[in-house]
Design goal:
Layout (H helix, E strand, L loop, with lengths): L1 H22 L5 E9 L2 E8 L2 H5 L4 H14 L5 E6 L7 H15 L4 H14 L4 E8 L7 E8 L6 H5 L2 E9 L2 E10 L13 H42 L1
Amino acid sequence: MIERDIITQKFKEFRIKEFINDSLRGAGLSHSKIQKTPLGEKIVIYASKPGLVIGSGGSNIKELTRELKKNFDLENPQIEINEIKEHNLVAQIVAERIAVSLERYGPVRFKGIGHSVMGDVIEAGALGVEILISGKIPSSRARTWRFYQGYLKKCGDIALTKVDTAYEIAKLKTGIVGVKVSIMPPGTRLPDDIEIQETLQSSVEETEEKEEELKKKIDESEKKEKKSEQVKENEQGTKK
Protein backbone atom coordinates (compact mmCIF):
# COMPACT_ATOMS: atom_id res chain seq x y z
CA MET A 1 0.00 0.00 0.00
CA ILE A 2 1.04 3.59 -0.63
CA GLU A 3 0.60 4.59 3.02
CA ARG A 4 2.86 1.80 4.20
CA ASP A 5 5.55 2.74 1.67
CA ILE A 6 5.42 6.37 2.77
CA ILE A 7 5.76 5.42 6.44
CA THR A 8 8.67 3.10 5.65
CA GLN A 9 10.44 5.82 3.67
CA LYS A 10 9.93 8.44 6.39
CA PHE A 11 11.17 6.06 9.07
CA LYS A 12 14.28 5.36 7.00
CA GLU A 13 14.93 9.10 6.64
CA PHE A 14 14.52 9.52 10.40
CA ARG A 15 17.06 6.76 11.08
CA ILE A 16 19.52 8.35 8.63
CA LYS A 17 19.20 11.74 10.34
CA GLU A 18 19.70 10.17 13.78
CA PHE A 19 22.79 8.36 12.52
CA ILE A 20 24.21 11.61 11.11
CA ASN A 21 23.55 13.41 14.40
CA ASP A 22 25.36 10.71 16.38
CA SER A 23 28.27 10.54 13.92
CA LEU A 24 28.83 14.31 13.81
CA ARG A 25 28.33 15.06 17.49
CA GLY A 26 30.42 18.04 18.55
CA ALA A 27 30.60 19.55 15.05
CA GLY A 28 27.81 22.08 15.66
CA LEU A 29 25.19 20.20 13.64
CA SER A 30 21.87 22.00 13.30
CA HIS A 31 19.81 19.72 11.06
CA SER A 32 19.98 17.76 7.83
CA LYS A 33 17.77 17.32 4.78
CA ILE A 34 17.42 14.36 2.43
CA GLN A 35 16.48 14.93 -1.21
CA LYS A 36 16.06 12.43 -4.03
CA THR A 37 17.84 13.22 -7.30
CA PRO A 38 18.33 11.25 -10.55
CA LEU A 39 21.93 10.56 -9.49
CA GLY A 40 21.00 9.30 -6.02
CA GLU A 41 20.21 10.62 -2.56
CA LYS A 42 21.39 14.13 -1.77
CA ILE A 43 22.00 14.81 1.93
CA VAL A 44 22.38 18.46 2.95
CA ILE A 45 24.02 18.99 6.35
CA TYR A 46 23.77 22.36 8.12
CA ALA A 47 26.57 22.85 10.65
CA SER A 48 28.48 25.67 12.33
CA LYS A 49 31.85 23.87 12.04
CA PRO A 50 32.11 22.52 8.48
CA GLY A 51 35.81 21.79 8.93
CA LEU A 52 35.07 19.16 11.58
CA VAL A 53 32.37 17.65 9.38
CA ILE A 54 34.71 17.34 6.38
CA GLY A 55 37.79 16.23 8.29
CA SER A 56 41.39 16.27 7.12
CA GLY A 57 41.42 15.56 3.41
CA GLY A 58 37.71 14.73 3.48
CA SER A 59 38.23 11.68 5.70
CA ASN A 60 35.07 12.21 7.76
CA ILE A 61 32.90 12.68 4.67
CA LYS A 62 34.29 9.54 3.05
CA GLU A 63 33.74 7.51 6.20
CA LEU A 64 30.20 8.84 6.58
CA THR A 65 29.45 8.00 2.94
CA ARG A 66 30.68 4.42 3.41
CA GLU A 67 28.60 3.97 6.56
CA LEU A 68 25.47 5.29 4.85
CA LYS A 69 25.93 2.89 1.94
CA LYS A 70 26.53 -0.03 4.29
CA ASN A 71 23.84 0.55 6.92
CA PHE A 72 21.00 2.06 4.86
CA ASP A 73 21.53 0.59 1.36
CA LEU A 74 22.04 3.96 -0.31
CA GLU A 75 23.42 3.59 -3.81
CA ASN A 76 25.09 6.95 -4.37
CA PRO A 77 24.72 9.33 -1.39
CA GLN A 78 25.94 12.84 -2.16
CA ILE A 79 26.72 14.91 0.93
CA GLU A 80 26.58 18.70 0.81
CA ILE A 81 27.58 20.93 3.73
CA ASN A 82 26.18 24.40 4.42
CA GLU A 83 27.73 26.62 7.05
CA ILE A 84 25.57 28.34 9.67
CA LYS A 85 27.05 31.71 10.61
CA GLU A 86 24.69 32.75 13.43
CA HIS A 87 25.15 29.53 15.38
CA ASN A 88 24.24 31.17 18.70
CA LEU A 89 20.67 31.65 17.43
CA VAL A 90 20.09 27.96 16.59
CA ALA A 91 18.65 26.07 19.55
CA GLN A 92 19.99 22.66 18.48
CA ILE A 93 23.58 23.92 18.22
CA VAL A 94 23.32 25.70 21.59
CA ALA A 95 21.87 22.60 23.28
CA GLU A 96 24.63 20.41 21.83
CA ARG A 97 27.25 22.89 23.01
CA ILE A 98 25.91 22.72 26.57
CA ALA A 99 25.74 18.91 26.53
CA VAL A 100 29.29 18.55 25.18
CA SER A 101 30.60 21.06 27.76
CA LEU A 102 28.92 19.12 30.58
CA GLU A 103 30.49 15.88 29.37
CA ARG A 104 33.91 17.52 29.10
CA TYR A 105 34.04 19.58 32.32
CA GLY A 106 31.62 17.62 34.51
CA PRO A 107 28.56 18.74 36.48
CA VAL A 108 30.51 21.02 38.84
CA ARG A 109 30.75 23.90 36.33
CA PHE A 110 27.19 23.69 35.02
CA LYS A 111 26.24 27.18 36.28
CA GLY A 112 29.16 28.82 34.52
CA ILE A 113 28.34 26.92 31.33
CA GLY A 114 24.67 27.94 31.47
CA HIS A 115 25.35 31.63 32.13
CA SER A 116 28.09 31.92 29.48
CA VAL A 117 25.97 30.27 26.79
CA MET A 118 22.96 32.40 27.74
CA GLY A 119 25.05 35.57 27.45
CA ASP A 120 26.31 34.54 24.00
CA VAL A 121 22.75 33.97 22.77
CA ILE A 122 21.59 37.39 24.00
CA GLU A 123 24.64 39.11 22.49
CA ALA A 124 23.81 37.48 19.14
CA GLY A 125 20.55 39.46 19.11
CA ALA A 126 17.99 37.01 20.48
CA LEU A 127 14.92 38.54 22.13
CA GLY A 128 14.85 35.87 24.83
CA VAL A 129 16.37 32.53 25.83
CA GLU A 130 15.56 29.81 28.34
CA ILE A 131 17.89 26.92 29.26
CA LEU A 132 16.69 23.98 31.36
CA ILE A 133 19.21 21.45 32.71
CA SER A 134 17.58 18.45 34.40
CA GLY A 135 19.31 15.60 36.17
CA LYS A 136 21.55 14.73 39.09
CA ILE A 137 23.39 18.05 39.12
CA PRO A 138 25.37 18.80 41.22
CA SER A 139 24.27 16.32 43.92
CA SER A 140 22.83 12.82 43.72
CA ARG A 141 19.27 14.16 43.88
CA ALA A 142 17.73 15.02 40.53
CA ARG A 143 16.39 18.53 40.00
CA THR A 144 15.92 21.12 37.25
CA TRP A 145 18.00 24.28 36.91
CA ARG A 146 16.63 27.18 34.88
CA PHE A 147 18.61 29.94 33.16
CA TYR A 148 16.46 32.68 31.69
CA GLN A 149 17.02 36.09 30.14
CA GLY A 150 15.00 38.39 27.90
CA TYR A 151 11.42 37.90 26.72
CA LEU A 152 10.11 34.50 25.63
CA LYS A 153 6.60 33.44 24.66
CA LYS A 154 5.42 30.24 26.34
CA CYS A 155 2.02 29.74 24.70
CA GLY A 156 0.05 30.71 21.62
CA ASP A 157 0.90 30.69 17.94
CA ILE A 158 4.17 32.61 18.47
CA ALA A 159 5.46 29.93 20.84
CA LEU A 160 4.64 27.18 18.34
CA THR A 161 5.83 28.78 15.10
CA LYS A 162 8.50 31.34 16.02
CA VAL A 163 10.30 30.04 19.13
CA ASP A 164 13.13 27.62 18.29
CA THR A 165 13.26 24.70 20.75
CA ALA A 166 15.73 21.82 20.92
CA TYR A 167 16.55 18.90 23.23
CA GLU A 168 19.87 17.19 23.92
CA ILE A 169 21.27 14.74 26.47
CA ALA A 170 24.62 14.60 28.24
CA LYS A 171 25.98 11.27 29.47
CA LEU A 172 27.68 11.84 32.82
CA LYS A 173 28.94 9.49 35.52
CA THR A 174 25.94 10.34 37.69
CA GLY A 175 23.52 9.49 34.88
CA ILE A 176 21.74 11.07 31.94
CA VAL A 177 21.27 14.86 32.06
CA GLY A 178 18.67 16.48 29.83
CA VAL A 179 19.13 19.88 28.21
CA LYS A 180 16.31 21.95 26.73
CA VAL A 181 16.95 25.26 24.95
CA SER A 182 14.29 27.71 23.74
CA ILE A 183 15.28 30.82 21.76
CA MET A 184 13.13 33.65 20.42
CA PRO A 185 15.09 34.90 17.39
CA PRO A 186 15.51 38.60 16.54
CA GLY A 187 12.89 40.16 14.31
CA THR A 188 10.02 38.16 15.81
CA ARG A 189 6.90 40.29 15.50
CA LEU A 190 4.50 39.92 18.40
CA PRO A 191 0.75 40.52 18.10
CA ASP A 192 0.87 43.40 20.59
CA ASP A 193 3.60 45.30 18.70
CA ILE A 194 2.26 48.61 17.37
CA GLU A 195 3.98 50.68 14.68
CA ILE A 196 2.84 54.16 13.68
CA GLN A 197 3.23 54.62 9.95
CA GLU A 198 4.66 57.82 8.48
CA THR A 199 1.47 58.55 6.56
CA LEU A 200 -0.51 58.45 9.77
CA GLN A 201 2.02 60.70 11.49
CA SER A 202 1.85 63.24 8.65
CA SER A 203 -1.96 63.19 8.72
CA VAL A 204 -1.91 63.72 12.49
CA GLU A 205 0.48 66.65 12.08
CA GLU A 206 -1.73 68.16 9.36
CA THR A 207 -4.82 67.94 11.57
CA GLU A 208 -2.92 69.56 14.43
CA GLU A 209 -1.82 72.41 12.14
CA LYS A 210 -5.40 72.90 10.94
CA GLU A 211 -6.65 72.99 14.51
CA GLU A 212 -4.07 75.65 15.39
CA GLU A 213 -5.10 77.74 12.36
CA LEU A 214 -8.76 77.48 13.37
CA LYS A 215 -7.90 78.57 16.91
CA LYS A 216 -6.00 81.58 15.56
CA LYS A 217 -8.91 82.56 13.31
CA ILE A 218 -11.37 82.22 16.20
CA ASP A 219 -9.15 84.35 18.44
CA GLU A 220 -8.82 87.02 15.74
CA SER A 221 -12.59 87.11 15.16
CA GLU A 222 -13.21 87.42 18.91
CA LYS A 223 -10.73 90.30 19.12
CA LYS A 224 -12.43 92.07 16.20
CA GLU A 225 -15.84 91.67 17.84
CA LYS A 226 -14.53 93.12 21.11
CA LYS A 227 -13.00 96.08 19.27
CA SER A 228 -16.25 96.75 17.39
CA GLU A 229 -18.22 96.63 20.65
CA GLN A 230 -15.80 99.07 22.28
CA VAL A 231 -16.09 101.44 19.30
CA LYS A 232 -19.90 101.35 19.51
CA GLU A 233 -19.82 102.04 23.25
CA ASN A 234 -17.49 105.00 22.70
CA GLU A 235 -19.73 106.43 19.98
CA GLN A 236 -22.80 106.14 22.20
CA GLY A 237 -20.93 107.89 25.03
CA THR A 238 -19.95 110.83 22.82
CA LYS A 239 -23.56 111.24 21.58
CA LYS A 240 -24.83 111.48 25.13
